[in-house]
């Protein structure tokens, strides 16, 4: 049919669906979430007056420095995100546009998603405890670890929980702190065998860490490129694949010996 129309007529006909798509994008909510740097919390300290990590059944040690888990804040699953919001966030370095399904992979309503995130957090805490005690060669039947962190869900604090447990029980193994007195931040899931897994929003989490005083950031090795894309000045990025990697790197950094990898 288009071959019988003039060039101008053909372009006009072709433009109709394009205009329709643009109109739909402008006036219909898009399947995205807009994220920004969220809160951080020192797992060696307290949250709302309650210690984040409480250990019974084994002697613990006083620690210095901080181990800060990091988060992102995203528009809620029932928030409508429009084309203008996406365009605005696209050009900003303190925000990111993420597919809604990547931020909220399970559930259609806020409460359902909250339950999912809470379950993931509990699983992460259990795995973090198992990984830390296994690394130290301690019997988890004799030692009880309670982890409390309000209003945070998901599994991405696993690595920092494990490091906090190790620091409270053994430190660097020779009387020092894993942090070396620094403010160390990071992110990463963890399995019971100590494997560190990737998470989302790493570039935003580095900004949250820098904002809250961190000078070192532990990042899952697979996400080095994302972390370095907009790395805040003065923040050192250390890639890790396992809990053992993280402990060795922090110990080397604290003692000033050995090689510390970098993204």
TrEMBL record:
Database matches in InterPro entries: Lon_proteolytic, Lon_Prtase, Ribosomal_Su5_D2-typ_SF, Ribsml_uS5_D2-typ_fold_subgr
PANTHER family xref list: ATP DEPENDENT LON PROTEASE FAMILY MEMBER
This protein's record includes keyword Ribosomal protein: no
UniProt-recorded Gene Ontology molecular function terms: ATP binding; ATP-dependent peptidase activity; serine-type endopeptidase activity
GO BP annotations listed: protein catabolic process; proteolysis
Entry EC number(s): 3.4.21.53
Organism: Streptomyces chromofuscus
Pfam families: Lon_C
Claim: Ribonucleoprotein is one of the keywords in the record: no
Lineage top rank: taxon: Bacteria
SUPFAM superfamilies assigned to the protein according to its UniProt record, in alphabetical order: Ribosomal protein S5 domain 2-like
Reactions listed under catalytic activity: Hydrolysis of proteins in presence of ATP
Positions of the Lon proteolytic domain: 151-253
Family to which this protein belongs: Belongs to the peptidase S16 family.
Catalytic residues of the enzyme: 156, 205
Enzyme class: hydrolase
Gene3D superfamilies, sorted: 3.30.230.10
Keywords: Hydrolase, Protease, Serine protease
Protein name: endopeptidase La
């Amino acid at each position: 049919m288009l071959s019988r129309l003039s060039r101008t007529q053909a372009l006009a006909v072709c433009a109709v669906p394009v205009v329709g798509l643009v109109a739909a994008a402008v006036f219909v909510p898009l399947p995205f979430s807009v994220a920004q740097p969220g809160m951080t919390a020192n797992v060696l300290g307290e949250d709302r007056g309650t210690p984040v990590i409480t250990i019974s059944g084994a002697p613990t040690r006083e620690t210095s420095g901080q181990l800060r888990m990091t988060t992102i804040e995203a528009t809620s699953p029932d928030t409508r995100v429009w084309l203008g919001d996406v365009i605005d966030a696209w050009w900003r370095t303190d925000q990111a546009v993420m597919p809604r399904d990547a931020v909220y992979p399970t559930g259609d309503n806020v409460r359902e998603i909250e339950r999912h995130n809470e379950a993931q957090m509990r699983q992460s805490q259990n795995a973090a405890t198992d990984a830390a005690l296994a690394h130290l060669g301690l019997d988890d039947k004799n030692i009880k670890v309670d982890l409390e962190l309000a209003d945070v869900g998901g599994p991405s604090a696993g690595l920092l929980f494990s490091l906090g447990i190790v620091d409270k029980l053994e430190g660097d193994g020779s009387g020092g702190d894993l942090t070396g007195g620094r403010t160390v931040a990071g992110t990463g899931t963890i399995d019971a065998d100590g494997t560190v897994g990737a998470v989302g929003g790493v570039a935003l989490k580095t900004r949250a860490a820098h904002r809250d005083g961190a000078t070192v950031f532990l990042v899952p090795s697979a996400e080095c490129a994302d972390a370095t894309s907009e790395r805040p000045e003065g923040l050192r990025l250390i890639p890790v694949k396992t809990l053992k990697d993280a402990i060795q790197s922090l110990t080397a950094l604290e003692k000033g010996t050995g090689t510390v990898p970098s993204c």
